[in-house]
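Milestone 3.1: sequence recovery, worked example.
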């Protein structure tokens, strides 16, 4: 069994060909794509694929914690095949979403949170990425 199929099975998901293709795409593209992006990129190799199938498959994957969804982009839900805890930064100029580490001790140092069991943390930063800062600076000169 390949790595993608193993990932699905470990999340109690039956590894159908479509599920494997979509999960594999997410694992190979850590760019946090939208449904449309995934659909458009997979379509040439899977001509019978429909947008609804992609959407429904992503939902099954999400419900079983095989992926995480991001609401960092107000226009589209974005999908992430990296289920290890991490934070995200979205650039307001180019729209790219970057992975960042969670601040150390984030689980321990929030007063009043000690008694809760935390299953997920969604931490979003927004601003300008380095590339776009450089572009802005160049325009000013
Ligand atoms: Zn940028
Ligand atoms: Zn991520």
């Amino acid at each position: 069994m390949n790595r993608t199929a193993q990932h699905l099975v470990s999340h109690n998901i039956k590894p159908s060909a479509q599920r494997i293709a979509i999960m594999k795409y997410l694992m190979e593209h850590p760019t946090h794509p939208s449904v449309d992006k995934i659909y458009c990129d997979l379509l040439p190799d899977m001509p019978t694929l429909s947008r609804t199938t992609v959407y429904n498959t992503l939902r099954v994957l999400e419900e079983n914690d095989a992926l995480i969804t991001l609401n960092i982009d107000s226009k589209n839900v974005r999908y992430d095949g990296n289920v290890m805890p991490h934070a995200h930064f979205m650039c307001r100029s180019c729209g790219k979403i970057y992975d960042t580490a969670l601040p150390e001790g984030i689980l321990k140092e929030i007063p009043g949170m000690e008694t809760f069991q935390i299953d997920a943390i969604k931490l979003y930063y927004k601003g300008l990425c380095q590339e776009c800062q450089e572009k802005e600076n160049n325009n000013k000169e």
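The chain has a mean pLDDT of 93. Helices lie at 3-10, 17-28, 35-42, 51-63, 130-140.
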